[in-house]
Amino acid sequence: MTSAMTTAAGAKAPVGRQRKRPGVLPGFGLSMGFTVVYLSLLVLLPLVVLPLKSASLGWEGFWRVVTTPQALYSYQLTFGAALIAALVNLVFGMVVAWVLVRYQFPGKKILDAMVDLPFALPTAVAGIALTALYTKTGWLGAPLDNWFGLKVAFSPIGIVVALVFIGIPFVVRTVQPVLEDIEREIEEAAASLGANRWETVRRVLLPTIVPALLTGFALAFARAVGEYGSVVFIAGNRPMVTEITPLLIMSKLEQFDYVGAAAIATVMLAISFVLLLFINLLQGWQARRGRRFA
């Protein structure tokens, strides 16, 4: 009897007409309106102001400002160093995440906490510390200079070192949760079917973690492109040698050339948007491909 009554009651309440439980936040309209206003004030409005501010130069004036030899070299150095640093973090960040997830060793919690140090450390402090380490008289700079003739501080190499330092947490913290969700039984099953270690990595692990790797790469690259505090000390800031684009923008602001600074910032914004859009499209393609072969 009870079962029949339950069935009848369930029949009177079709699935499509079941009353939904209210969410924690207010209704969709109010939440969506707050989201749009919040993002518009903090993100969209500042981004729109940049091209509007630089539009006062006219097309010829804009092109003349953003294509000076000094500006072109700063673009090349900024995006080139950011790309190299992001690729380095892509490889070593995955290794660090793998060690933290798959191995147990003394001091693991300390090493795990140290990964977040670039997040908590002020960028200026990081720049001063890296400069002290990599100068010709520093603990690391002296051996590199004496043994290999490699000058790190006040050179483009120093810029890459600083960008690697501030970008590695993005890759580690993006890949680490994905590795934790991969059960070891899957690797054991692949091994029982005759797969060697390389085949297991290539066919089992990589398809799962590649979207997370691309996300971490994109975050590290975006962070490196806009980095200023940790780079300004170790770079040396020599025009046409170690001057990054954020420093060039700051120089124009100090000279009260607000329109010129807005023009160069607009170029940085456009290039960054195109690169991040490409990376996101690649990540989406990889995710769809992984679902297709799952």
Could you please describe the fold and organization of this structure?
- This protein is mainly alpha-helical.
- 78% of the residues lie in helices and 0% in strands.
- It has helices at residues 2-12, 28-54, 58-66, 69-102, 108-115, 117-120, 123-134, 141-148, 156-181, 184-192, 197-225, 229-235, 245-254, 258-293.
- Helix 4 packs across helix 11 (197-225), helix 7 packs across helix 9 (156-181) and helix 13 packs antiparallel against helix 14 (258-293).
Q: Segments where pLDDT lies below 50 for 5+ residues? A: 1-16
Output the structural class: mainly alpha
Shape descriptor reads globular
- How would you spell out the order of helices and strands? HHHHHHHHHHHHHH
- End-to-end Cα distance, whole Å, is 45 Å
Got a strand count?
A: 0
Strand content: under 5%
Sheet bearing the most strands, described? none
Helix count, DSSP H or I runs of 4 or more residues: 14
Give the averaged pLDDT, no decimals.
83
Helix % is over 70%
